[in-house]
C-alpha cells in the first residue's frame, strides 16, 4: 500500500509541476486583459523571510472579506518583477466584482493582499510600494534573528541557492553582498541572487528595514508581529492584525504553523556570536516597538 501511496503523491506533484506554468500563463493573459477591473492590494505582508509569513497569510486568507492573489501568495512585483508593469501586477488579483461579493458575504469592504517577504529587505521595494499603492498597510513578522538566519540557510540549501555550510556562509556574507544595494539602485530592473538568497545576518537587522519603511509610509501604516507570540498564542496576534486592517472578527480560524522544517542543532559558539552581533539592533528594535521582542525577554 505504501509504495502505491507514495507513487500517487509523486504523480500528483509531477502533474501540478507540469500544469502550473500553463495555468500561470493563461492567468497572466486573462489578467492583463482585465487588469482595469481588478482590485489592488489594501495591505501586504512584507516579511521577514522565515518568520511565519505563510502561516499569517493562510490565517488572514480565511477571513471572508480578505482576498489573496490568483495562483500564488507572493507576486514579488515590487522586488524582482517591477519591470513587468502595473497591469501585470493587477492581473494577479481578484476582480472588483469578486470583491463586492466578498464584502456582502463578510459585512465589510473587501481587501486584497499578497505576501512577498523580500519586500522588507529589497532597497527599492518600499519606495515602489509607497508610490504605487498610496494608503496601503504593511504587516511585518519578526522572530529571533539568530534562528531566522539558521532557518533561512536551511531553506536556501534545500532550494539549491546555497552550497556552503552555515558557518562558512556567514563568513562569506559580507563579500557576497558587497555593493549589492548600490547595484540594485543603479539598475532598478536588476536582480542580485546573493542579496536575495544569502543575506542571513543582514535580513535579521529588522530595525534598519522598519526605519526605512517608516520614513516612506509613516509609522501608522506598519504593524509588526512577533512570530513567537503568534505561534504561542495565535488568536490575540491575529485579532490585532484585523484591528490594524479595520476588519471585523471573522469567527473560527484554523491556525497552523507552515514551512517549519526539522534541522540539526546550531553550534553553540555560532549562536552566541550571532546573538552578540544582533544585541544592539535588538535594543534599537525594542525602542522602536515600545516593547522587548520575545527572544530578548
Structural class: alpha/beta
Q: What Rg do the Cα atoms give?
A: 20 Å
> What level of helicity do the residues show?
40-55%
Quote the distance from N terminus to C terminus. Answer: 49 Å
Following the backbone from N to C, one meets helices and strands in this order, namely: HEHEHHEHEHHHHHEHHH
Quote the average pLDDT. 91
CATH class of the largest domain equals: Alpha Beta
- Give the CATH H-level superfamily of the largest domain: P-loop containing nucleotide triphosphate hydrolases
Unreliable sequence segments:
1-6
CATH architecture tag of the largest domain: 3-Layer(aba) Sandwich
Give the gist of this structure:
This protein is α/β, with parallel strands linked by helices and 297 residues long. It is built from 13 helices and five strands.
Q: Could you characterize the architecture of this molecule?
A:
The chain has two domains: 31 residues; 210 residues, Rossmann fold (3-Layer(aba) Sandwich), CATH 3.40.50. The chain has 13 helices and five strands. α10 runs parallel beside α13. The chain is α/β, with parallel strands linked by helices. Strands 2-3-1-4-5 form a five-stranded parallel beta sheet, with helices on both faces.
Amino acid at each position: 500500500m505504501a509504495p502505491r501511496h507514495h507513487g500517487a503523491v509523486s504523480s500528483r506533484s509531477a502533474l501540478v509541476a507540469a500544469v502550473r506554468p500553463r495555468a500561470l500563463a493563461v492567468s497572466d493573459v486573462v489578467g492583463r486583459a482585465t487588469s482595469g477591473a481588478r482590485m489592488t492590494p489594501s495591505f501586504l505582508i512584507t516579511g521577514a523571510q522565515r518568520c511565519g509569513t505563510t502561516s499569517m497569510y493562510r490565517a488572514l486568507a480565511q477571513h471572508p472579506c480578505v482576498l489573496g492573489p490568483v495562483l500564488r501568495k507572493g507576486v514579488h512585483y515590487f522586488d524582482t518583477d517591477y519591470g513587468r508593469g502595473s497591469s501585470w501586477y493587477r492581473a494577479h488579483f481578484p476582480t472588483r466584482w469578486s470583491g463586492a461579493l466578498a464584502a456582502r458575504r463578510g459585512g465589510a469592504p473587501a481587501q486584497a493582499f499578497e505576501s512577498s517577504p523580500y519586500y522588507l529587505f529589497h532597497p527599492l521595494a518600499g519606495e515602489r510600494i509607497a508610490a504605487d499603492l498610496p494608503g496601503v498597510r504593511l504587516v511585518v513578522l519578526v522572530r529571533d534573528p539568530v534562528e531566522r538566519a539558521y532557518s533561512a540557510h536551511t531553506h536556501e540549501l534545500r532550494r539549491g541557492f546555497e552550497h556552503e555550510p552555515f558557518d562558512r556562509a556567514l563568513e562569506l556574507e559580507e563579500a557576497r553582498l558587497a555593493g549589492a544595494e548600490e547595484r540594485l539602485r543603479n539598475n532598478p530592473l536588476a536582480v542580485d541572487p546573493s542579496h536575495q538568497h544569502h543575506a542571513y545576518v543582514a535580513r535579521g537587522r529588522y530595525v534598519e528595514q522598519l526605519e526605512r519603511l517608516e520614513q516612506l509610509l509613516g509609522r501608522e501604516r506598519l504593524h509588526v508581529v512577533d512570530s513567537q507570540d503568534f505561534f504561542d498564542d495565535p488568536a490575540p496576534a491575529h485579532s490585532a492584525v484585523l484591528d490594524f486592517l479595520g476588519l471585523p472578527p471573522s469567527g473560527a480560524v484554523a491556525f497552523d504553523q507552515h514551512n517549519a522544517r526539522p534541522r540539526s542543532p546550531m553550534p553553540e559558539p555560532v549562536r552566541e556570536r550571532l546573538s552578540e552581533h544582533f544585541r544592539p539592533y535588538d535594543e534599537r528594535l525594542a525602542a522602536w516597538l515600545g516593547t522587548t521582542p520575545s527572544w530578548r525577554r
